[in-house]
C-alpha cells in the first residue's frame, strides 16, 4: 500500500511540473534570447502578455481576447495545454531587398477553454527582431462560425515614446505623417481640402493606423503592424493617451457593429511587434514577410521586377486628361466632342513606347485608355467602366503589336472607381483581354467610395476582394500593382504576383495639393514599406507646377538629386520614371542614373538612418557586382561619410556620384545636380553633402 501511495505521489508531482496551470509563467525566448514573451491569465481568466527586448520590458501587461457576438471569448479561460517548437529555415524570395531570408523563431501555443466550453488558442512566434501572435479558434460543438464585433488586443507602452503616425481612416492611407509623443497624438487630418477623388474618412482624433513606428528614450525602436491580413478587416489602433495604451480597432463592415464574419476553424492575421536597437534594425528586419505563408502560386519565375514609364503624370500636372472629352458633364453622349487633350491616344502612346524602347524600360503604363472616364468623375455610380472597350482614339490592336516589336510591354490600367461589384463581374474577361493583347501587368485603382455601399477600403469585404484579384491575376500569370488598396502586410510572400502597391501618400500629391513635406520619404521606409513594395512613382525632374500653368504654386518638395536617390531608398520591385519624356530628354546625363538603377536586389546595407530625418542605403544588384547608393534628408542640410566596407575585397570600382549641385535647395533652387566619377575600393570613405530636401545617388560599377 505504501509503495502504491509513493508511486501516486511521484506521478502527481510529475503532472504538476508539466501542467501549464502551475505557478511557472508560460514564456518563450527568441533563438538569440533578445526577445522574450510572457503569457498570463488575469484573476478573471482573461489572457494577457508582456514582451521584453534585450532584458527591458517594451510591451507592458496587455490584455488579449475577441469580442464575438453572442459568445464569450473574453475571459473565464483556463490553460488546457501548452506546446512549443523551434523553426529555422532560409527561403529565397523571387525578388526583393535581399536574395535570401532566414526564418528563425521559437513558437509557443497556449490552448484555452472557458466555462462556456469555448476553445481558443493563442500562438506566439518569438524572433530575434520581434514577436508575432494570432488567435486561432477551432471548430467546436454548437459553433460553426463567429461574428467578430472587435478585438480586445492591447499594446501597453512602457513610456511616452516618440511616435510617427497617420490618422485612423477606414478608407484611405494617403496621409502625411505626424511626429509626436504618444500622449500627444491628436489625429486631426492634414489641413487641406480633399479633392473630389481623394476623400478622407477620419474615425476619431485618437485613432492611428499601422505600421506605427516608435522610438524609446534609450534608442530602442518599435513598429506595431500586422501580417497575413486575409479574410479579416485591417487593424487600426485606438490610443488611450493617459495610460499610453493602444487597443486594436478593426475597420467596420456595412453591417455595424459587425467587423468580420468567419467560418470555423479560423485564425486571425498576425499582430506584430518589431523590435530593434536602432532605426537601421527596422530596415534590416524581415519580420512581416516571415509571418506570412509561403507562395500559394507555385512557380513564380514569370513575375519580373519592372521599370516603367507612362501616360500618367501629364494628367496630374494638367496638360492632358484621362477622358476623351475633357471631363464634360453632359447628359447626352451624342453631344460630346473630343477635347483634344486626351492623354491615351494612339499617337501619344506610340511616343511613350518609342521612349521606353530607346532607353531600356520594360513597360509603358497607359491610363485613360478605356471608355467610362467621361461619366465617372466626382460621381458614385455602380457601373461606369468597361475593361475591354478602348476609346475610339486608342488603337489597342496596333499598339499591342507595335509595343511587342519594340520589346516593350504595355501595362494595363483598371480604375474601378471603387465600383467593385462591376469590376468583379468583368475580371475574367478583362484579364483574358490583357493576355490576348500581350499584357502581363495591371495597375488597379480604387478611388472613391466603395460599392457595395457601406463597405470600406480596409474592411473585410474589400480585403477578400483584393485576394480574389491576386488569385485571378495569378491564374492568368499577370502581375498586380494595387492603388488605393489596404496597406500591405507581407502578402507578396504568399502571392508574389501582387508585387507592389500604393496604399500611402504618393508623389502624385505634390502636383495638386500642399504636397508631401521633405521628411515624408525619410519616414516611409520605416513604416509603410515594412509591409511591402511602394509604387511611389519617383523621378520628377520638373518640380514646379508653374512650368505647366503660371497660376499654379504647387511644387515637389525635393531636389532633383533626391528624386534619383529615392530609387534606392523607397523599395519597390516596380519603379516608375514618372516625369514626362521631354523633361528627361533635356537632362539625359542626370537621367542616366534612372536608366542604370536596378529594381531587384541581392543585398541591402544601411549606411545611416534616423526616422523622419535621413536614411542612406546601399543595395547590391541581383544580377551583377554593381552597388547603388541612395542617401536622402528632410528639410535640413546634412553631411555624411559613407563607408564602403561592403564592397568586395580586392575588386576595383568606379563610382558615378549624382549629388546636389551648388546652391541646391528643395524650395529655392531644386534643379542643380553635380555629376562626378571617382575610383573606389573596399574600405574607402565617400564624403557627401545633402542640400535641404536633398539627396545623393551613386552608381558603383565593378571594373
Description:
This protein is α+β, with helices and mostly antiparallel strands. It folds into 3 domains: 25-290, Distorted Sandwich (Beta-galactosidase, Chain A, domain 5); 296-480, TIM Barrel, CATH 3.20.20.70; 504-703, TIM Barrel, CATH 3.20.20. The protein is built from 14 helices and 37 strands. Strands 7, 8, 9, 10, 13, 14, 16, 17, 21 and 22 form a 10-stranded antiparallel sheet that branches. Strands 1-2-3-4-12-19-18-15 form an 8-stranded antiparallel sheet, with no helix packed on it. Strands 28-27-26-25-24-23-29 form a 7-stranded parallel sheet. Helix 5 packs parallel to helix 7. It is globular. The termini are far apart.
Low-confidence stretches: 1-23, 190-200
Q: What is the percentage of strand-forming residues?
A: 25-35%
H/I helix tally: 14
- What number of structural domains do the residues give? 3
Q: What is the fold named in CATH at topology level of the largest domain?
A: Beta-galactosidase, Chain A, domain 5
Reported for the largest beta sheet, the result is: 10 strands, antiparallel
Beta-strand segment tally: 37
- As a percent range, the share of helical residues equals 10-25%
Mean pLDDT: 93
CATH class category label of the largest domain: Mainly Beta
Quaternary form = single chain
Radius of gyration: 26 Å
The rounded distance between the terminal residues' Cα atoms is: 86 Å
CATH architecture of the largest domain: Distorted Sandwich
Helix/strand-derived category reads alpha+beta
Shape type: globular
Amino acid at each position: 500500500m505504501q509503495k502504491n501511495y509513493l508511486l501516486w505521489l511521484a506521478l502527481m508531482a510529475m503532472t504538476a511540473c508539466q501542467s501549464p496551470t502551475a505557478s511557472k509563467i508560460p514564456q518563450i525566448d527568441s533563438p538569440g534570447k533578445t526577445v522574450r514573451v510572457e503569457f498570463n491569465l488575469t484573476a478573471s481568466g482573461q489572457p494577457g502578455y508582456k514582451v521584453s527586448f534585450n532584458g527591458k520590458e517594451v510591451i507592458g501587461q496587455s490584455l488579449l481576447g475577441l469580442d464575438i457576438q453572442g459568445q464569450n471569448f473574453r475571459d473565464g479561460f483556463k490553460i488546457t495545454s501548452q506546446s512549443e517548437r523551434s523553426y529555422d529555415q532560409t527561403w529565397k524570395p523571387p525578388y526583393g531587398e535581399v536574395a535570401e531570408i532566414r526564418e528563425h523563431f521559437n513558437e509557443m501555443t497556449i490552448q484555452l477553454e472557458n466555462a462556456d466550453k469555448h476553445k481558443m488558442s493563442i500562438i506566439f512566434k518569438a524572433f530575434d527582431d520581434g514577436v508575432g501572435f494570432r488567435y486561432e479558434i477551432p471548430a467546436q460543438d454548437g459553433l460553426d462560425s463567429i461574428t467578430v464585433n472587435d478585438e480586445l488586443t492591447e499594446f501597453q507602452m512602457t513610456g511616452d515614446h516618440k511616435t510617427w503616425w497617420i490618422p485612423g481612416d477606414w478608407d484611405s492611407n494617403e496621409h502625411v505623417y505626424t511626429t509626436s509623443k504618444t500622449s500627444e497624438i491628436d489625429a486631426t487630418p492634414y489641413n487641406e481640402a480633399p479633392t473630389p477623388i481623394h476623400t478622407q474618412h477620419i474615425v476619431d482624433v485618437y485613432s492611428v493606423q499601422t505600421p506605427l513606428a516608435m522610438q524609446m528614450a534609450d534608442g530602442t525602436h518599435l513598429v506595431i503592424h500586422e501580417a497575413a491580413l486575409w479574410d479579416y478587416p485591417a487593424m487600426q489602433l485606438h490610443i488611450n493617451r493617459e495610460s499610453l495604451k493602444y487597443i486594436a480597432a478593426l475597420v467596420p463592415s456595412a453591417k455595424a457593429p459587425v467587423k468580420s464574419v468567419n467560418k470555423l476553424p479560423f485564425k486571425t492575421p498576425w499582430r506584430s511587434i518589431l523590435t530593434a536597437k536602432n532605426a537601421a534594425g527596422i530596415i534590416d528586419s524581415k519580420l512581416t514577410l516571415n509571418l506570412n505563408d509561403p507562395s500559394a502560386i507555385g512557380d513564380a519565375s514569370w513575375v519580373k521586377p519592372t521599370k516603367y514609364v507612362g501616360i500618367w503624370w501629364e494628367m496630374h500636372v494638367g496638360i492632358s486628361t484621362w477622358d476623351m472629352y475633357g471631363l464634360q458633364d453632359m447628359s447626352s453622349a451624342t453631344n460630346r466632342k473630343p477635347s483634344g487633350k486626351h492623354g491615351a491616344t494612339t499617337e501619344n502612346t506610340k511616343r511613350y513606347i518609342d521612349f521606353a524602347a530607346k532607353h531600356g524600360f520594360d513597360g509603358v503604363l497607359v491610363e485613360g485608355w478605356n471608355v467610362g472616364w467621361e461619366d465617372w468623375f466626382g460621381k458614385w455610380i455602380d457601373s461606369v467602366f468597361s475593361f475591354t472597350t478602348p476609346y475610339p482614339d486608342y488603337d489597342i490592336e496596333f499598339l499591342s503589336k507595335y509595343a511587342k516589336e519594340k520589346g516593350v510591354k504595355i501595362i494595363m490600367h483598371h480604375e474601378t472607381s471603387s465600383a467593385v461589384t462591376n469590376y468583379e463581374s468583368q475580371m475574367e474577361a478583362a484579364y483574358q483581354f490583357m493576355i490576348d493583347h500581350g499584357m502581363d501587368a495591371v495597375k488597379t485603382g480604387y478611388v472613391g467610395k466603395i460599392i457595395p455601399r457601406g463597405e470600406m477600403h480596409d474592411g473585410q469585404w474589400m480585403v477578400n476582394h483584393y485576394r480574389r484579384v491576386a488569385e485571378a491575376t495569378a491564374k492568368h500569370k499577370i502581375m498586380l500593382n494595387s492603388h488605393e488598396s489596404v496597406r500591405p502586410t507581407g502578402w507578396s510572400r504568399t502571392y508574389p504576383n501582387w508585387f507592389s502597391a500604393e496604399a500611402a501618400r504618393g508623389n502624385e500629391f505634390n502636383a495638386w495639393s500642399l504636397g508631401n513635406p521633405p521628411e515624408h520619404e525619410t519616414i516611409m521606409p520605416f513604416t509603410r514599406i515594412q509591409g511591402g513594395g511602394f509604387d511611389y512613382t519617383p523621378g520628377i525632374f520638373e518640380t514646379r507646377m508653374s512650368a505647366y500653368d503660371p497660376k499654379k504654386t504647387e511644387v515637389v518638395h525635393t531636389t532633383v538629386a533626391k528624386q534619383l536617390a529615392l530609387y534606392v531608398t523607397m523599395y519597390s520591385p516596380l519603379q516608375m520614371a514618372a516625369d514626362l519624356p521631354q523633361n528627361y530628354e533635356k537632362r539625359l546625363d542626370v537621367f542616366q542614373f534612372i536608366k542604370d538603377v536596378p529594381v531587384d536586389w541581392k543585398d541591402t546595407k544601411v549606411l545611416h538612418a534616423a526616422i523622419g530625418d535621413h536614411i542612406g542605403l546601399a543595395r547590391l544588384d541581383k544580377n551583377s557586382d554593381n552597388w547603388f547608393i541612395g542617401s536622402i534628408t528632410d528639410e535640413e542640410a546634412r553631411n555624411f561619410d559613407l563607408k564602403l566596407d561592403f564592397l568586395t575585397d580586392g575588386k576595383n570600382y568606379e563610382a558615378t556620384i549624382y549629388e546636389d549641385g551648388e546652391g541646391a535647395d528643395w524650395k529655392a533652387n531644386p534643379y542643380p545636380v553635380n555629376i562626378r566619377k571617382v575610383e573606389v575600393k573596399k574600405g574607402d570613405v565617400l564624403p557627401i553633402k545633402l542640400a535641404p530636401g536633398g539627396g545623393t545617388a551613386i552608381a558603383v560599377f565593378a571594373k
